[in-house]
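In practice, a research group might receive sequence data for several interacting partners and want a quick structural hypothesis before committing to experiments. The following worked case mirrors that situation: the sequences arrive first, and a predicted assembly follows.
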Amino acid sequence: MTQLPTHTDKKLGLVIDLDTCVGCQACVTACKGWNDQGYGAALSDQNPYGSDPSGTFLNRVHSYQVQPDVGAAQIVNFPRSCLHCEDAPCVTVCPTGASYKRTEDGIVLVNEDACIGCGLCAWACPYGARELDQAAGVMKKCTLCVDRIYNENLPEEDREPACVRTCPTGARHFGDFADPESHVSKLVAERGGYDLMPDLKTKPTNKYLAPRKKDVPQEASLLAPLLDIQATGFAGWLDKVLGKLG
Amino acid sequence: MNPAPSVIAFTVLSGMGFGLLAFLGAGFVQPVGWLAFAHWGLGYALAVGGLTASTFHLGNPQRALRAFTQWKTSWLSREAWAAVITLLLLAPVALSDWLGLGWPRVIGLVGAVACFGTVFTTSMIYAQIAAVPRWNNWTVPAMFLSFELTGGALLSGQTLPALIGCAALIGALFAHKTKGDVAFAKRGQTLGKATGLDVVGMASVFEQPHTSPNYLMREMIYVVARKHLSRLWPIAFGAAAVVPAVLIVGLPHHPLTFSLAALVHLTGALASRWLFFAQAEHVVGLYYGQRQG
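A structural hypothesis for the assembly, expressed as tokens:
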């Protein structure tokens, strides 16, 4: 049913550290790769080698330029995927019951066998987390790799979402937000993790960590130490000889 | 939002159809015999035709029956129920008019109310979406219901209700436009706020996450040329409400007058519905730097 659960036992989700993300797109690729072969319809591409390639992805990484009041502009890479909201508007609008939020862990999923592909859930999501697969005609979204995290056939270290497992800089963290002692809960508490567009009252589970403040740049010229070099030894001798020649 | 022809046809045609069925059901006009068949037939054709058009934008229309299951939370599901119940309720009234059976009119009155209820559920599919600020207010049901009233009155040849409808429509369209034009800005959302990067500084797009448009951009980031807007809004106002009112007042009271007025109204309804979708901005556009905010 598309009625949201009043309580979920766990609140599984991601913390995304905008300070650490380098925008390498490895999470985009890992997500596409994993979801091409397991859960539900494979993420399709349209005209992938043509002039106008397009395809279904569950995770997109934006790049923004942020200009602080003082100092140089910064590049911030911004991964965007399903936030597994507590009050998920995408679930309640679904006319068929295909979209649902799980009571046991709070993951928002789509039962593709019941999806008519009306696209209303994608309209209802403020974050652009849902994409209608153009080949299968069903709605695709992040499953939090539900087919990995509980999969006992995988080695234990692989039982986390593909994007988290692959991230080379550790910018993505997976865990249970219902447990205040979990790694993700502590990270959010320490670094002031925040919700995206909280005014829309979706209560996202995933949290973002803002880029840390940059160090104060050195006032002196970077070349300063080079300007009065006192060469010694062979270099000193060479310096002397070359000086005489000049 | 993408102004898909199937969704424009669905909302405009079914709205007009349910409007005509409401006037027939309530007995404003009580044709007999084959004339009744033609009137009721047109109402059913428009309503059912519109509903059928809506299935053309489904990815898997063969499962459309499942849309009846989630009426507790989903306006789309409620609309499916309301439409079917209304069409079934009015069927005996139509049959009675056509075959001169003289069955009581009371079911027709209930059906007429149900017609407006159905169009209300259609409007709420859009009005409920908080992610589209232009839609997320009362002007959407007001506009849809005014269109239903006007279209139904014109198709059933009712001068006074049609004039009331035209007046209501001008008010509703005006309210929807003026409220809608500032709705996005009123939210105060910017790229910086949507990403939370405003605490660092002034955020702008450095590079898009993909090189060519995806489903999100095609479906939710539709950009309308300003010159089209300045032409289409007067057409919407004029053709939907002003010209039909002038026609039915100025020309003799004749079915041809009302047919002409209804056709002009339909043109205006299509123009205004195109604008309804094309002008509606989804907040996801903020992440792509394609919203004024």
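Before designing any experiment, note the following. The first strand of chain A starts at residue 12 and ends at 17. The mean pLDDT of chain A is 92.
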